[in-house]
Amino acid sequence: MRLNLRWPSRAEDRFEKWIAQRHQERVLAGETTPQGPCPGEDFLQKLARKSKGIRLSDPRVDHAATCPACMRRLLTMRREHQSRRQKIIFATAVATWVVIAAVITVARHELQKHSLATNSAVVSETVNLWDAGAFRGQQPGQLQSVTLPAARVRLTIVMPRFSSPGQYVVAVTHGPDGSGLISEAVATTTNSGQQETLSVTLDLRHAHAGQYYLSTTNEQDQASYYYPLQIR
Ligand SMILES: [Zn+2]
Q: How far is the CA of 57 from the centre of ligand 1 (A)?
């Protein structure tokens, strides 16, 4: 039904176009007789732009519609007008895209700067296990709980009393048996007075807040000690 209603109007459009085309051809071929003198360029410009200021009863409209010279000027003006409009539309589209691209670039840059700043910040923390009991493997003892932030942590560990010097693996894991590794690093103890200290950088940025374990494993005797760790 809709199609039936639309079809005749399209056909009429085509028919009118065809009539106009035929008329144009006749005018350009000089088969019509124009009345009166040719109107000024100004008037033809307005006519080409279909200006609302022009009344169809104006005798100059009749002239332009039947004069080959005026018709030719009109057709040229229409073409110029159309290409100018297309250029304006194109320029506007380009300008819009340039603005959008600039906004995206600036936003991306700001975001990168922000995430770089938050991601690369290293937080210094010291964990003093001097008086800590730990448990070896699954053997719970007197535990000292440690709290660390979910960040890149430059961790200084004061090792428990009587710890042997040497190379240690420091790890953060989910389980008290070394399962679910979050981050680990190797370091050699440095001696300050009576105390042995370890200095490692642990990446805890991807750890969710919760309960974990911090472990130290002596590389020589492979003895591991676990401390409950809270990541906040
Ligand atoms: Zn004319």
A: 17
Domain annotation for the chain: domains and CATH numbers: 2-85 (no CATH), 122-231 (2.60.40)
CA 12 / ligand 1 centre spacing (Å): 29
Phi, psi of 169, deg, nearest 5: -100, 125
Cα 72 to ligand 1 centroid, rounded to whole Å = 9
Give the span between the Cα atoms of 20 and 13, in whole angstroms. 10
- Dist CA 185 CA 170 (whole Å): 5
Between the CA of 41 and the centroid of ligand 1 the distance, in Å, is 10
Distance between CA atoms of 95 and 72, rounded to whole angstroms?
Answer: 35
Give the burial class of 184: count Cβ atoms within 10 A of its Cβ; 0-12 exposed, 13-18 middle, 19 or more buried: middle
64, burial (CB in 10 Å: exposed 0-12, middle 13-18, buried 19+): buried
Instruction: Average pLDDT across each block of 10 residues of the chain; the chain has 232 residues. List them in order.
Output: 55 85 92 93 89 87 94 92 91 93 93 74 88 56 74 92 91 89 93 90 91 91 87 90
Residue 209 near residue 167 (C-beta atoms within 8 A): no
Rounded CA separation 163/76 (Å): 96
| 50 Rama class: left (phi>0) / alpha (psi -120 to 50) / beta | left
